[in-house]
Amino acid sequence: MKTDNAEHIVDYRKLAAVWLALLALTTATVVVSRLELGAGKVWAALAIACLKSGLVIAFFMHMKYETRLFRIILFVALVTLAIFIGLTFFDVLYR
Amino acid sequence: MSSVQTTTAAAGGFWRDSGKTGIGSWIFSTDHKRIGLLYLYSVLGFFLVGATLGLLLRLELMTPGRTIMGATTYNALFTVHGVVMIFLFIIPGIPASFGNLVMPIQIGARDVAFPRLNLLSWWLYAIGALVVLTALFTGGGAPDTGWTFYVPFSARTGTNVSVAVFGVFILGFSSILTGINFVTTIHRLRAEGMNWGRLPLFVWSLYATAWVQILATPIIAITLVLVIAERVLGTGLFDPGRGGDPIMFQHLFWIYSHPAVYIMILPAMGVVSEIIPVFSRKPIFGYKMIAFSSIAIAAAGSLVWGHHMYTSGMSDTAVMVFSFLTFIVAIPSAIKVFNWVSTLYRGSISLEAPMLFALSFVLLFSIGGLSGLILGAAATDVHVHDTHFVVGHFHYVMFGGTGFAFFGAAHYWLPKFYGRRYKEKPALIGWALMFVGFNVTYFTMQVLGIRGMPRRYYDYLPEFAPLNMVATVGSWILAAGLIIMIVNLWRGLFWGEPFQGNPWGGATLEWSVPTPPPTENFEEEPVVSHGPYDFKGAGVP
């Protein structure tokens, strides 16, 4: 049987770069919250949050180095969440 | 020792071959069969508690006004009845007990993929149950919100809601871990030749259930934490006066709790799919469609939660969308029922106890399912929402469906694991009383609901009195049947006639191992060469 347990070591420079990127994006979130963008403010904040969680999942949680099965499972979970939120908006948007 | 020998003394298999005895050999065991039995005893114990509370509720409603308890006690009692039955009996019921007992053997595995995680699941269940029970006797007393913990009342009531929902939060983790364990086991530990097309339908149903457990349970966990936050920290998330939204609680609650209904019913459908072909002496009709419909029910059933909220003030658009989606779930459910009936057609039907429970499931689930369509259609739901019609419908599906399948599974599989069997005649009497009592109780409730009697009300108008009396008498018949059935099972499994081999002629792998199965299940790794309902291929008469 194939084993998928091989460890992947990410070097510190890469981890530090991701960390700096996360800090930069946090700063961006704060800056965006002070701009007058109307409804765009929420979308901008959500986009930055998605980018940040993507970086955490890919590098800190090693999803970038995992097999396709793990990515599919993550994808299923995200799609499920998106459907739950989407259906809820049939209520919230049209109430 | 007396001449009466119990199973543990008389039979071998996993009861004896590890050489370990005493309570420690059970509560610290990682053997899936022992954990399955731990769950079985636990859930059955809580079922008896919940059933007693249900009988008391019916007794209170026998006559208008006060019969045996006050209004406050009544509120607490229906809440605790719901919490115990839903979270402590029916959600873990079939998957954690019979799933653990049977599923690894059915796929040709020695155990589940993560045996220690499996034990942790039971411990989390036990701890969660203890916390829920603590809530009843501490703080402001037993919660009085109903098992749904709706805000704003649950955020304001002085009863012990925080501790109770924390207990349910812990129980959720138990459920998630079981789901993870089962998905991994079914993917990774199937024996050689056990491909997806040869998987028993009970395993297919557990697989679909496990995905719902993994994907939906975290949502209720978070929601219940938010209720605690609302109560303890006053966050205002569900308080409109502070910018919150109480309907959002209902969305979050039902996003889990509706799929949870499928966590309850899917494994029951799996049990019925095992019993019907064996007692009809015929391969199951439409194997692939039944397997597919389990996945379809799990997927479509996760998108219909809004049908609990038609009268909540939700938008009309959402009402229409959820009503449409609800009708879609009826399709895979009907596929199953038609396939079971087609399996029976021209079969050599043997009406023994497991089969009677399975056939009852088909009838009672169909009644419950069809009354569900009345509730799924927004126009009719508005009239019967929060009436006894809903209570009747829910009990038809959950008790008439899952409950009867649970007892069918007990009569079908437990003799294999105990090495002794129950007496057939008392089993038939118990079943008959349960079937009659059940219909007298819950069909009457549906009629009461159609006539306008609300649910969760302590008192009612005099015009509802005769039917309430009928429903209460029905509950006594039901209780008599339950007592006969459980006593017969208990006596039979511990002191009954020896049970050997494969008397019913099942073709799935659990019938090919010794009785009771050894700790490692198989003496040598099985190689599967036939389908689960290929009786000729399995060489059974």
General description of the model:
The complex is a heterodimer of chains A (95) and B (541). Chain A is mainly alpha-helical. Chain A has one domain. Chain A contains 3 helices and no strands. The model of chain A has no long low-confidence stretch (mean pLDDT 88). Mean pLDDT of chain B is 93; it is low at 1-10. In chain B, strands 1-2 form a two-stranded antiparallel ribbon. In chain B, helix 4 (71-106) packs parallel to helix 14. The radius of gyration of chain B is 23 Å and the shape is globular. Chain A binds chain B through residues 76-77, 80, 83-84, 87-88, 90-95, and chain B through 215, 219, 247-248, 251, 255, 302-303, 306, 313-318, 321-322.
Superfamily (CATH H level) name of chain B: Cytochrome c oxidase-like, subunit I domain
Number of domains of chain B: 1
- What is the CATH class of chain B? Mainly Alpha
- How does the major sheet of chain B shape up? 2 strands, antiparallel
> How many strand segments of chain A?
0
Give the H and E element order of chain A: HHH
Tags for this entry?
heterodimer, A: 95 residues, mainly alpha, 3 helices, flat, B: mainly alpha, Cytochrome C Oxidase, Chain A, 17 helices, disordered N terminus
Quick structural gist:
The complex is a heterodimer of chains A (95) and B (541). Chain A is mainly α and 95 residues long.
Element layout with pairings:
The complex is a heterodimer of chains A (95) and B (541).
Chain A lengths: L11 H23 L5 H21 L7 H25 L3
Helix pairs in contact in A: 1-2
Chain B lengths: L6 H4 L13 H4 L4 H29 L10 H36 L8 H23 L15 H4 L4 H28 L12 H32 L13 H35 L6 H15 L14 H29 L8 H24 L1 H7 L3 H31 L1 E2 L2 H27 L14 H31 L1 E2 L36 H4 L3
Antiparallel strand pairs in B: 1-2
Helix pairs in contact in B: 3-4, 3-5, 3-16, 4-7, 4-8, 4-9, 4-14, 5-7, 7-8, 8-9, 8-10, 9-10, 9-11, 9-12, 9-14, 10-11, 11-12, 12-14, 12-15, 14-15, 15-16
